[in-house]
Amino acid sequence: MSEWPTRIGLIGCGAMGGAMVRGLARTGTHAFVVADAVPAAAQSVAADIGATVGDVTDAAACDVVILAVKPKDAAVALAGIAPALVDGSVLISVVAGWDVARLTAIVGPRAILRTMPNLAVREGLGLVAFTAAGIDADTHAKVIALLAPLGTVEELPEALFGAATALVGSGPGFVALMAEGLEEGAVGSGFTRDQARRMVQAVLAGSAALLADGIDPAELRHRVSSPGGTTVEGVAVLERGAVRAHVADAVRAATRRATEL
Questions:
Q1: Which of 64, 67, 105, 124 has the fewest Cβ atoms surrounding its Cβ within 10 A?
Q2: What would the pLDDT profile of 109-168 be if each residue is shown by its tens digit?
Q3: Within a 10 A sphere around the Cβ of 128, how many other Cβ atoms?
Q4: What is the pLDDT of residue 1?
Q5: Terminus-to-terminus CA distance in the chain, angstroms?
């Protein structure tokens, strides 16, 4: 017998929606139905995961329905799927800025998960922040099990969703900017572009693995900072440029923007 959910519907096959279902398709025996206003987008996702391409009502008639459209398109999409949602299904929203009350106002009281994932869910290395409403304990456990293969799953109060959007959704962009800087510095020091990119990727992956053990980031920095050494010299440059403060300010700015969506 197939595991729950038997069928997962995706409405919105852009970068985030596509990453979600590609990550979910890496494990499990779910069948997928995907829909998008741009047929080529739905066909691309379908080809990758062996999904069926349908319309919005087809995707909405599944056990789990993932809504991953742009905020400006959410009202129309929700109005279109509301009549097709089946009893006992779970609506997973990936729509930035739309809280549970706003979602419920259109689809009515039902099991809803408001989520904020990042693109690394595609590889099972992502982070999914979520808040749940209208979900009983049994379904809650099943939903956690469903999302677990995507990476770290963190349940949060809805009041923190602006900050979650900034950290979870925008964080990879901030890290990518740092990676660009490391790569440019390496190329400027004599490496080829390919060498620099491979080495930066390895540095970031290794650092992430060390931090995943729960070490304080400051402690990791101290461990690699020999007195009078290269790390101390480089960190001094970053501190003069207030890089740490700017990164913190970037998260706060993204949080403010998230609450405006």
A1: 105
A2: 999 999 999 999 999 999 999 999 999 999 999 999 999 999 999 999 999 999 998 999
A3: 25
A4: 37
A5: 42
Q: Which among 125, 116, 169, 154 is positioned nearest to 23, based on CA atoms?
A: 125
Give the residue ranges of DSSP H helices in the chain.
Answer: 15-25, 39-49, 56-60, 74-81, 100-107, 137-147, 161-164, 170-188, 193-211, 217-223, 230-240, 243-260
Q: What is the pTM of this model?
A: 0.85
Residue 141 CA: distances (Å) to CA of 23, 100, 124, 137, 150:
19, 19, 19, 6, 15
Cα-trace Rg, the chain: 21
Which tokens is 243 given? 């890089």
- Per DSSP, 166 falls in state I
Spatial contact of 19 and 41, defined as CB atoms under 8 Å apart: no
Pair of tokens at residue 193: 């572009």
Length of the chain: 261
Residue indicated by tokens 């979602």 = 103
